[in-house]
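Standup notes
- DV: blocked on the single-chain target, sequence here:
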Amino acid sequence: MKLEEDDNTNRLIESLKLWKALTSTEFFKNIPFMLFLNKSDLFRDKMERAPLKSVFPEFEAFIKNEEIAKKNPFDQGCAFFEKQYKSQFGGNAPFRTHVTCAIDTESCKVVWAAVREALIRKQSEGLGAY
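- DV (later): unblocked, structure below
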């Protein structure tokens, strides 16, 4: 999909640029991040209608990886975008990725439990919030 204000720019490419700019700033350089790849339901539907390789030609080479090739197309797409965001991450602290669907309450419960557990674990280790 294209940006609403610019019908030439792909939203995902713009998101990656924004991610890089945000995580590269001095203020956030050492702050851990959690990246939520939300709207997984829409992404699953979109993949059926618009192959990722049409926007990201490197996707074809990515799915030839033996481990990735075993996954279903949706999981391949999620793994691809996780790799894209990792490659654009400008911070020094780690970040975690969660694929979510905000309207799927069971999925949200699992994700928020994982987030809560990570925050509590890091806090109890005395390493600050994550």
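- Follow-up: The CA atoms of residues 123 and 129 lie 6 Å apart.
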